[in-house]
């Protein structure tokens, strides 16, 4: 269950007009559709049936039984709905309502810190490729809905694209059909040969990740929605997603360090070029 405080609940209830039994201007149908779109959850599932079963009480029931992360995502979407309608004049509001809205914005920020995947922000497209950007969006949506099992095949495709982009950047040769673990192995070999990695332990961890990427190929082909497969369970999907996201997060930090070092070198050269002797 979420750990919404008494104060936070009062703030949300006031902004959303919940003492009336309603939630904003939603009908039963639009309320149901809104939450299905936001989280893939049917708010009229019996587990959210709280007290009278009104829309407000179902939202209170949702707060009682769901995780911090899911509650944070839904509150964030409801706040987006409130401000967008207020801005176009669908909701009447005054200065105190606007101040209340600003206070309520802090609530999902706190709750979403309990997101199921660490380093999710590392999973972002590093090129303007449309498919790459769509993959990033699809993975984030699956994670926000806590449907981790459905993210596995898209994450695999995302990581293939990600490592390919890095190989291109560093002029590492590969073929169109080079599998993920081979791509990753070539990239790790490049980091080692360029003395980018400082510790033997880090090298060992990265080399062990090559075999992890090879195993990821099998999960993608035989335990994900990529084909007509029995889908891997939630807990193991969580472990795989976290492990891969952590590897990508480390790679991103390495790439940023290399980029910053290059910028410093270029700046030094520019200064030398500008000297009058």
Textual characterization of the structure:
The longest helix has 41 residues, at 234-274. Helix 1 crosses helix 5 (95-104) and helix 8 (152-169) runs parallel beside helix 9 (180-193). This protein has helices at 6-16, 28-39, 55-65, 68-87, 95-104, 106-111, 130-144, 152-169, 180-193, 200-222, 234-274. The chain has 2 domains: 6-114; 120-274, no CATH class. By secondary structure, the protein is mainly alpha-helical.
Using brief descriptors, characterize the structure shown.
elongated; 0% strand; 277 residues
Short summary of the structure?
By secondary structure, the chain is mainly α.
Structural class determined from secondary elements = mainly alpha
Distance between the termini: 70 Å
Number of strands: 0
Number of domains: 2
Q: Note the overall shape.
A: elongated
- Global Rg: 24 Å
**Helices and strands, in N-to-C order?**
HHHHHHHHHHH
Ordered list of secondary-structure elements with their pairings:
Blueprint: H1 6-16, H2 28-39, H3 55-65, H4 68-87, H5 95-104, H6 106-111, H7 130-144, H8 152-169, H9 180-193, H10 200-222, H11 234-274
């Amino acid at each position: 269950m979420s750990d919404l405080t008494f104060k936070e609940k009062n703030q949300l209830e006031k902004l959303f007009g919940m003492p009336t039994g309603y939630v904003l201007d939603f009908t039963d149908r639009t309320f149901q559709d809104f939450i299905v779109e936001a989280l893939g959850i049917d708010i009229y599932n019996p587990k959210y049936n709280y007290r009278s079963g009104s829309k407000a009480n179902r939202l209170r029931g949702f707060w009682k039984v769901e995780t911090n992360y899911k509650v944070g995502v839904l509150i964030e979407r409801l706040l987006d709905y409130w401000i967008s309608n207020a801005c176009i004049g669908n909701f009447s509001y005054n200065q105190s309502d606007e101040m209340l809205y600003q206070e309520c914005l802090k609530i999902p920020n706190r709750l979403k810190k309990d997101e199921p995947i660490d380093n999710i922000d590392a999973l972002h497209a590093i090129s303007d490729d449309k498919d790459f950007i769509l993959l990033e969006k699809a993975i984030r949506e699956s994670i926000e809905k806590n449907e981790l099992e459905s993210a596995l095949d898209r994450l695999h495709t995302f990581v293939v694209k990600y490592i390919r982009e890095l190989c291109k950047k560093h002029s590492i040769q590969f073929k169109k059909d080079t599998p993920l673990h081979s791509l990753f192995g070539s990239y790790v070999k490049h980091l080692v040969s360029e003395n980018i990695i400082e510790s033997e332990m880090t090298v060992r961890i990265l080399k062990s990740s090559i075999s992890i990427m090879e195993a990821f190929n099998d999960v993608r082909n035989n335990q994900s929605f990529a084909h007509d497969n029995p889908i891997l369970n939630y807990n193991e999907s969580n472990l795989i997603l976290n492990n891969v996201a952590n590897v990508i997060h480390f790679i991103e930090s390495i790439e940023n360090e290399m980029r910053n070092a290059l910028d410093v070198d270029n700046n030094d050269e520019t200064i030398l070029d500008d000297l009058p002797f």
